[in-house]
Amino acid sequence: MNITHINIQDFFYSGFSSSTNNGFVHIKQLPNLSIVQSKTGSYNIKIGNLKEYTTGEGGFFIAPSMMRQKITHFINTDKNIFTARYVFLDVIINNKYRLDDVFDFPVVTDKKYSLILDSDFDDFEKCESVCDKMSCLYRMLKHLLEISTEKSIYKDKHFHTLLDYIRENYAKKITVSQMAEIMNISESYLYDFFKKTLGTSPVHYLNEYRLSVASELLTHTNDTISTIAEKVGIQDQFYFSKLFKSKYLVSPLKYRKNIL
Questions:
Q1: What is the pLDDT of residues 172-204, one digit of tens each?
Q2: Cα-flanking dihedrals φ and ψ of residue 249, to 5°?
């Protein structure tokens, strides 16, 4: 792909430390690409139906948006602590495509790129101005592209128009008929296309996106469960909780408690 424009729409950088027990498992799915480092201790990471990988201490894993992450934390037993840092990126390629809609990334980085990304993170944490921070993020993005492989499905412009529509309007009522109209295809072909391309149905993808946003709201806000359900376009709180537990294996309240 000939890349002519790269725009970082949004980002979120943070870190944490914990003395949680070995083997603590966290299941999540996020609306943005995640680059995560186990600074002290190690992660086991399973993305979707792929095999489970180990980051090792200081290693990184990369999780695409909208993919289920099963994350197992292992503390450094000598120091009795686990520390991690991460960045979430929303990146647009050529004013049209989102980064992880166009490129695949390795689940875990090799030693060379773990050291490179570790340096990128260190530099970012030293930055004081937003200009310096953005410069570091673009350098990090350059390194991510160096280890990426190009997907084949991104060329369908109607498909990405639909994904953008869902991301911008998930809080509203969206019907299968509307989705089919955006892609300029029949509803039956829409189902076939989603099954072939994403391995799921249009409605399931929509709800998965809503739940990924909900998981972030549970983590970073004090909103009530009913408020969060409404914000992500699911008006029935009990149905929202049922969907959430089916996906994350715990209730929304338990999910928030585990994070805290």
A1: 999 999 999 998 899 998 999 888 877 889 999
A2: 70, 0
Task: Convert the pLDDT of each residue in 23-75 to its tens digit.
Answer: 888 888 888 899 999 999 999 999 988 899 999 999 999 999 888 899 999 99
pTM over 0.90: no
- Torsion 16-21-22-28 (CA) sign: negative
pLDDT tens digits for 128-164?
Answer: 999 999 999 999 999 999 999 988 766 667 788 888 8
Packed helices 187-198 and 176-183: angle between N→C axes, nearest 10 degrees = 80
Exposure class string for 245-257: b at 16+ Cβ within 10 A, else e: eebbeeebeebbe
Instruction: Please state, in angstroms and rounded to a whole number, the distance separating the CA atoms of residues 98 and 90.
Output: 7
Give me the mean pLDDT over the 225-236 stretch: 95
Buried b (16+ CB within 10 A) or exposed e, 87-104: bbbbbbbeeebbbbbbbe
Rounded to an integer, what distance in angstroms lies between the CA atom of residue 87 and that of residue 136? 12
Q: Enter the tokens of residue 177.
A: 């008929």
In degrees, rounded to 5, the angle at the alpha carbon of residue 221 between the alpha carbons of residues 90 and 132 is: 40
